[in-house]
Input
Amino acid sequence: DVKVTQSSRYLVKRTGEKVFLECVQDMDHENMFWYRQDPGLGLRLIYFSYDVKMKEKGDIPEGYSVSREKKERFSLILESASTNQTSMYLCASRAPSSRYNEQFFGPGTRLTVL
Amino acid sequence: AQSVAQPEDQVNVAEGNPLTVKCTYSVSGNPYLFWYVQYPNRGLQFLLKYITGDNLVKGSYGFEAEFNKSQTSFHLKKPSALVSDSALYFCAVRPGSGAGSYQLTFGKGTKLSVIP
Output
């Protein structure tokens, strides 16, 4: 089974702090994704990565950056956390070797910024 | 740009009754369509997908979905609902090729409540 893990289930930070959210997948997937989930808005794509050291902006990249130094790890960085970044963050991975493959999701990190 | 609409924020159904969760989409070219389920405080779990072929696709936990190209719909169905089916359901779409084919676009989700 594909396993996608996220470093924390719950995280509380203060406004202005630098925040790192880590995601690791164990199936050698090339593609990885970061979403945020908010009630009534569904999932919105923040950034994604085709492969190591490659990244693309999604629909809402403002206030975020990402890092993909190793294939299995995709980090989301909040350079200076703000209260409007309080949300559930979901990481996903996918193998494009089959074009039809679905994305596999981690359990999520619920971030609260005070 | 692609989009997904889930017109119902919440669906209530009695246990044992059939259930339908609605989804319509907009995408350029052939659509790849997906349903995911999310249980409380959990990530999303894949249920089923339509890529090509039969319009009726079967997935996990007894769920199925019907692709209707003329109505651009992909409604999720189950013949007999269980209380354990209560969860948040997301429909998602991406184009089969070309620009945006890496990117899944999700609907806002439908909360399904199955009443004992």
